[in-house]
Amino acid sequence: xxxxxxxxxITAGPGYNRWxxxxxxxxxxxxxxxxxxxxxxxxxxxKALGINEPLAxxxxxxxxMRAFTTTCDWKVSDLGWMYTLFFVFxxxxxxxxxxxxxxAGPRKAGxxxxxxxxxxxxxxxxxxxxxxxxxxxxxxxVIGGIGLGLGYISPVSTLIKWFPDKRGMATGMAIMGFxxxxxxxxxxxxxxxxxxxxETSVGVWQTFATMGVLYFVAMMIGSLGYRVPAHGWKPExxxxxxxxxxxxxxxxxxxxxxxHKTPQFWLLWSVLCLNVSAGIGVIGMASPMLQEVxxxxxxxxxxxxxxxxxxxxxxxxxxxxGFAGLLSFFNILGRIGWASCSxxxxxxxxxxxxxxLGFVLYVLSPWAGDIGSVALFAGLFCIILTMYGGGFSxxxxxxxxxxxxxxxxAIHGRLLTAWATAGVLGPVIVNYLRDYxxxxxxxxDHAYNMIMYVLAALLLVGLICNLLVRPVAQKHYxxxxxxxxxxxxxxxxxxxxxxxxxxxSSKVLTAVVWVAVGIPIAYGIWNTLQKAVILFH
Length: 537
Prior knowledge:
Layout: H1 21-32, H2 42-45, H3 63-66, H4 76-79, H5 81-104, H6 106-130, H7 133-153, H8 156-162, H9 167-196, H10 204-224, H11 256-259, H12 263-294, H13 310-345, H14 347-370, H15 374-403, H16 408-415, H17 417-439, H18 449-467, H19 480-489, H20 507-532
Helix pairs in contact: 1-9, 1-10, 1-20, 5-7, 5-16, 5-17, 6-7, 6-10, 8-9, 9-10, 9-13, 9-15, 9-20, 12-13, 12-14, 12-15, 12-17, 12-18, 13-14, 13-15, 13-20, 14-15, 14-18, 15-16
């Protein structure tokens, strides 16, 4: 089995169609992307014992006791720690195991990710069945989080090496899947919970078990579909750009253990952190923000949110949910769209657009709220979310340009600690500023104005960091001898050493695998747009 998962085993030979690799990456990313959709489980799990209503714990049952109790239901805030653990362990595992991944190859890393993510969901199913919250934290949060990190970075360096002429587009296709995973998984989870629910069960443990199996199978199929190009391979008719015309794209390589010693790494770390902090703050408050800013205007009633009746608030909440779904859709579009555009614009210029245009849009959003234009307000944030998603998908190609492709997966893994940091920074800024504004007597419909200006200021700092990025100094590059030794450690085979292709590639096979991943993506987009269309009624 070790040989079956080895890097040598998956080196593609002559005639291999590189367009077979992105669907394999999408199969993995669409599976782990369900991490974004886990909130669909919170309310059912909060009444796992009470079924119809939560069975509240006694006042003396503290946080740690609730992790082991079997006599009362969990709080949504306790369940939410699973979401925090997802992204803490995603960033940390990507940083820790990134270097191993470069040597082991994407198939082995993807298979481990499948075991962790699918297995973590199975452990969570046991946790729900036995009513042990700590098992859910361990299963999905810790073990599943490690699977997220390995699954997220497993295709990055592979795709970049297969598409040296379209680095941004290649990584955008895969990372688009992570953003779209919840579009598919959330409605699927709702359907499964409805199917499995009984008078004595909310149907969550069965849903976890079913999705664990489905995701394990999908991720294993994707991982087995990974192939790496032979050393020295390049697309037919393509020639690397001359250094004189594209100074920001290096033909050299920086070792992962050397990358963090360069100012470029920390500048790009800051670029990602600040871009994500601003965007993730908007995602976290999208639905309540729209409801509080416009209130009854969303249903043609000239009243503030607090003045509406219960039924009217439900109508407004449905529109808020549609807005959140619409932002998710534009987040996905941005991942493939902006990353592809960066192949023509250049990575540095693309991030200049993110920060400069984003600054303008954040500053304009309070004005859009003041004039009561729901369409303008929603449009501004839809564009903002494209740049949030684009930031994720463009950064791997940016790293490949600056540090070379040899260790880009490992360097990307370490850079993802910026994501974990932003996951704390963005929501903290938004939540505490909102609470402060309300405590000072600011009306709820104006409490977000200051937040928008602060997020705009973060983007200005990010713009400065991006403008400071320059090519890496010559002293940080690996020598020819060091590079050759690294390739031997990674078991990279030369083009001449590969005698036969792993399997023959055909246009029919390529079409089949793209349809296989395209169907669930279309299903997710259709569900999302159905919910979002209510925003314009």
